[in-house]
Write a structure and sequence with these properties.
about 475 residues; alpha/beta; Polyamine Oxidase, Chain A, domain 2; 2 domains; seven-stranded mixed sheet; 18 helices; 16 strands; globular; binds flavin-adenine dinucleotide
């Protein structure tokens, strides 16, 4: 065999899988279709020279909390986290904002009559976060070390965000804040388990923050790639894999791809039942994304917005819910829920002196060709009048641009498949080890496996553990 392990795809999960195999002593080679590593964690000068934009992911509470990334010497390889003073601001039409601050107390100060209810929800989660994070970011079939903490979280998380909001919060600020966080799930808010995203990301906001890598998301990927190389791993870029026969011989092959590509690459080797499971795997809505080069910071009406790395623009919980429901029904909302990041306010390396960047996207139906530029910019203007006057240059990406950029984004779905209850448990299929396939040496390691979307590398880590077990390795031997 030429290698112990070959990995296809250098997204956060592909690199994590490669690192875990390499630190167990395996020889590893990673093949990446594009000319740079990183998958959904890359940066580029999308607008003008000197302006660094995050092409996909921008804000990294999951990477900071990742039990796997936390075992790696990424700082040694140049990764530096920047924590904005506040994780998130959610502005309203009256010029006020709900703010997800590092402390629960300061957050509560922005939530009026729901302050007590908010603290009652989040204080126990934050107290237990050290126990909870590794449990939540693990495959569903694992043996929990903290079953009670996990069960208490699970009972809340399994609800729809809508139900959760109605049960716990009565006023606009807490309702809007929770709805905006839960809408990261990219599903209608009356579907289960959308409360999970609200609870997990809210808890992470208080336990570690919502940071960004200094210099852009690419720095995280570069640090992972540098660590893999330091362990002896090889990375070959600019090489799309269209058939497994292209790969050198290996004892294990780990694919950082979604079920649709898994079928294309190796479907004929699978029994009909597994092929059927992969065929019926469901993808979610797409995204329309914009990046701007700006003359000045965004002129938010609410001062608190200037302290936050991330903004959720959509107003009330009801408005956000209506927008997400429209998307699920195949329509582009007139007033979309917009996720926005303003990295250059906290990281001067992102733009020339005195200039700024902004990053934003909204959900749209999968494969939508509708240009959302006007609607996204109108949502920003609504909370920051004069925004358009700050724009020097803009760059847009439709769902199909995303699929062309990275074949894992089927129709622009950035989550690797919808995260409903079925596809939380059976991701991508119902197997004891969802990372294994019916072909002995073939594994799937992308966000289409547990614990699903986000830059945390845990899918890759657990896929590598499954492969190592199959190859007869026990615990890792190198750091
Ligand atoms: C617009 C946008 C915003 C996002 N925002 C955030 C955020 O702020 N925070 C967050 O945590 N997450 C965010 N995400 C989600 C996050 O980027 C993904 O969940 C994560 O990157 C998934 O990692 P992965 O390794 O499974 O796959 P990917 O990152 O998609 O990587 C897959 C890699 O495999 C390569 N590849 C695929 N097929 C082949 C092939 N046949 N041959 C060779 N190479 C191949 C691709 O080129 C790609 O490099 C965002 C995503 C997008 C698109």
């Amino acid at each position: 065999m030429e290698f112990d392990a070959v990995v296809v795809g250098s997204g956060p999960n592909g690199l994590a899988a490669g690192i875990e195999m390499a630190r167990a002593g395996c020889s590893v080679c990673v093949f990446e279709a594009r000319d740079t590593v990183g998958g959904g964690a890359r940066s580029a000068e999308l607008t003008l020279p000197g302006f660094t934009h995050d092409v996909c992911s921008a804000i990294h509470p999951l990477a900071l909390a990742s039990p796997f990334f936390n075992t790696l010497p990424l700082a040694k390889h140049g990764l530096e986290w920047i924590q904005p003073p506040a994780a998130l601001a959610h502005p309203f039409d009256d010029g006020t904002a709900a703010v997800l601050e590092l402390t629960i107390e300061r957050t509560c100060a922005t939530l009026g009559p729901d302050a007590h209810a908010y603290a009652k929800v989040f204080a126990p989660l934050v107290r237990n976060s050290v126990k909870l994070i590794p449990e939540i970011l693990a495959p569903p079939a694992h043996l929990p070390r903290h079953p009670w903490a996990l069960m208490r979280f699970g009972m809340k998380a399994v609800q729809s965000a809508q139900k959760f909001i109605d049960r716990h919060f009565k006023a606009s600020h807490a309702r809007g804040l929770f709805a905006g966080i839960a809408a990261h799930s990219n599903m209608p808010l009356d579907h289960r388990p959308t409360a999970a995203a609200g609870l997990l990301l809210g808890m992470l906001g208080h336990s570690g923050g919502w940071p960004m890598p200094k210099g852009g998301s690419q720095k995280l990927s570069d640090a992972l790639a540098a660590h893999l190389t330091s362990l002896g791993g090889r990375i070959v870029t600019g090489t799309p894999i269209t058939r497994l026969g292209q790969l050198p011989s290996a004892r294990a092959i780990l694919l950082d791809v979604t079920p649709q590509q898994l079928l294309q690459l190796s479907g004929e080797q699978f029994p009909p039942s597994y092929r059927w499971e992969l065929h019926k795997y469901q993808y979610g809505p797409g995204v329309f994304k914009m990046d701007w080069a700006l003359n000045s910071p965004i002129p938010w009406k609410a001062d608190a917005c200037r302290r936050a790395g991330t903004l959720h623009l959509g107003g009330s919980a009801e408005e956000i819910a209506a927008g997400e429901e429209a998307v699920a029904k195949g329509r582009c909302p007139e007033r979309p829920y917009v996720l926005l990041a303003q990295q250059s306010l906290f990281d001067a390396s992102r733009a020339p002196q005195g200039k700024h960047t902004a990053w934003a996207y909204c959900h749209v139906p999968r494969g939508s060709k509708v240009d959302m530029t006007e609607r996204i910019e109108s949502q920003i203007e609504r909370f920051a009048p004069g925004f358009r006057d700050c724009v020097i240059s803009r760059h847009t990406m439709t769902p199909l641009d995303f699929e062309n950029y990275n074949p894992n984004y089927i129709g622009g779905d950035i989550t690797g498949g919808i995260q409903n209850i079925l596809q939380t448990v059976a991701r991508p299929s119902l197997r004891i080890s969802p990372y294994s396939t019916p072909v002995d040496n073939l594994f799937i390691c992308s966000s289409s496996t547990p614990p699903a979307a986000g830059v945390h590398g845990m899918c890759g880590y657990y896929a590598a553990r499954a492969a190592l077990q199959r190859l007869g390795y026990n615990r890792h031997t190198r750091g």
